[in-house]
């Protein structure tokens, strides 16, 4: 099966070095079979891209300097041993780079030294535009879009559409496999299970609800936006943060978990949940609003003003009836109609009714409800704005933490690089000192051997041991340099080379001459010059 992969690289120079400068993975096969470039010379790709990075200030590890696109082809269609097929593969890679990234520099290196033996292209794309310095974004770095464009180029050249293997996270696959084989806890699996469970809930039908439910599950969801002149731009991705079972903080981008956890898959599932939610809402009976329900209840509990309430009636019924006493006749009066009634009792009854009669309500429940509604209407936008601000603050904090981490890592790398250079310099200086010591020792050994040979030659000429002095040997060495190998003329006008006897004799003559000059210098009268201290006229 063919393979296609696109990954970001913060070290663009290292990506180029890996593609074209590293040794071949298979002995006997060249690392790079063909090389071409879009908007650059492939021989000077690294230098030309570095010019753009430096021009726009994107030279530290906080920027993505390049994108690596690996595009492989099956053996059934293209043979690595056929030079024409190699040229076609390189040509298709160059077309893909020029169509996908017309305003970017791109290096296309065709290789065939992989374990599978497939012909494949390493396309190193400069993320920074040489026209305006803007970096690659969104669709042009999307795997599905690149795969679609790659198949379009392949079809134009007469080859079948390729079925690419969707790449997984290499670190996730390796870590999960190792831990699962050992029967241990895998935090990635735990996180994916939590995300899947929340995504399947029909009540979760928008991003806000998704973030809230994930927070209840102990997972913080952070959406990443591109920045454009100090304001939030388009949505570029999502990441997840949570504490695993061991209490260790974990954070991972969605693409590190797989395509089903990326923003496109999440939005698709949320859209499905929303459709299901709307279907259920349409099938359910109409819901009575809180205001309508309150009005209905108030209509049932309203009491007329001239009617005593139920509690008053119950008290009057339960109160014991008192028989009129003989002394109560004084409180009775005769009405004009001719009947008698208790005036005091009537007054007391009227006062009791005034105290207990329920007056018409001023609808306190409705007023409280209205206040709640008004408060909710006022506070809801504020709460949403606060939630959005909190999200921005969290994103900014996470971005600052990431920058601090990058800066810390850079400082660590710089310190390690300085330490490595210092150790290398010290090792080099130590090796130089040791070499100088060895060289000096060798020179002294040779000088000693040469002097011993000179002493041996002088000793063979001088019969008396006491005559062998250091001065004689030194002078003999001078004579050897001056006279040895040369010819001398004898008294009989014959030429013959100087022998050791001749050199020793000449050495003695030179020593005698030196001593004579020294004696003459010691006994020569010294001339004194009188100094004139008189002032000039």
Query: What is the CATH fold-level name of the largest domain?
Result: BirA Bifunctional Protein, domain 2
Give the beta-strand count. 12
Judging by the overall fold, what is the CATH architecture of the largest domain? 2-Layer Sandwich
Helix content: 40-55%
β-strand amount: 5-15%
SSE topology string: EHEHEHEEHHHHEEEHHHHEEHHHEEH
Number of domains: 4
Distance between the termini: 113 Å
Low-confidence runs: 302-307, 321-341
Number of helices: 15
| Structural class estimated from helices and strands | alpha+beta
What is the average of the pLDDT values? 77
Please describe the biggest sheet, giving its number of strands, its sense, and whether it closes into a barrel. 5 strands, antiparallel
Instruction: State the shape.
Output: elongated
CATH class of the largest domain: Alpha Beta
What gyration radius follows from the Cα positions, in whole Å?
A: 52 Å
Strand order of the largest sheet: 1-3-5-4-2
Pfam families: Relaxase (PF03432)
Organism: Alkalicoccus saliphilus
Protein name: MobA/VirD2-like nuclease domain-containing protein
